[in-house]
Amino acid sequence: MVAKRNGIALIGSCVVDELTPAIAPGQLSYVDAGRFVDAQELAGEELVYSTGGMALNVGLDLAKIGGGYPITVIGKIGTDHRAELVRRQLVENGISDSHLIVDMQNVTSCTEVVHIRMPDGSIERIFRHTLGAMGSFSEKDIDFNVLQGHKIVQFGYGLLMPQFDLADTDYGAVMGRSLAKAQAMGLWTALDFVTPTADNLWKFLRYRDALHFLDICCINDDQACTLTGRTDPAEACQSLVRTFQVGCAVVHCGSRGPNYAYSRETGLIVQPNFVVPEQEYMGNTGAGDAFSAAILHGLHQSWPLADCLRFAAAAAAISLADVSATGAMKQEREIVLYMNNRPTH
User: Fold this and answer.
1) pLDDT one-digit tens code per residue, 245-277
2) Which neighbouring-strand residues pair with 114?
3) Residue 327: C-alpha distances to residues 12, 52, 90, 100, 188 (Å)
4) How far apart are CA 241 and CA 235, in angstroms?
5) What CATH number matches the domain at 8-26+43-341, 1.10.15.40, 3.30.70.120, 3.40.1380.20, 3.40.1190.20?
6) Fewer CB near the terminus (10 Å): N or C of the chain?
């Protein structure tokens, strides 16, 4: 009797985020005031350090959702204080740190996230990224034997792992070879990206030839429209399956909403965003990863695709309540309660 596949593996970006509180354009912010005077005299920035990147964000969100299945995180870190934070976060959430590869030459990857509160009350972000150890992370660092028995493996972020973004004659991008290898092992494959800029659009389009190795493609509307050449997110979602042979496509549209899912079996599914009161909106760092984690969780549990999409919209809304990427995530039953009782747009 063949054992039932169980577990989700996340392969890729392991980053430490340095998060600043939201400030308005033109506002003066004191970075180190707390070193010199009391906060009543001069309030300084309260910097928050948290883990980030696809593998850590999605892995920690899944652990907090609490599906009870194995969660494996594979990535690369340095030997600095940020690496200690990565390991501590994993272990405290019940995820082994034994699959992290140590780079003795480079620091742990890190991103400075600056939150800017716009005049309309929305929050925009500026990112300053140090590639660090993840810059050297490549397919040869992955022990594919670790993936045996898992049900789903997600790689990412494309465009933030230089060794996987390189061109490949047979697979479009080197990442395609890893996806094909995992798929041949019987795993459901998934991939996430960072959104391309005008400068690296040509590199992003390499991934078109790798998409047919994806069983699950959960990406944002900008990415979906760019990959497919469509301007409408709903059409792009369908094109990922019809034209590029993705197994199941999910397109999340951020605050603009709504969100879409499509497979040949279900047709197009539309899910509006949940209404998030201003007092529950602290920042949107990690909202896309929360959405992705919830999709993976639902698919792992064999839920109908429409239920997965609604659950993901609720998880993303819940994630907005904390400035960090994963600090606000709740258990499955709390997300279900949220999605059954909160209004949508």
Assistant:
1) 999 999 999 998 899 999 999 999 999 999 999
2) 126
3) 20, 11, 13, 22, 28
4) 10
5) 3.40.1190.20
6) N
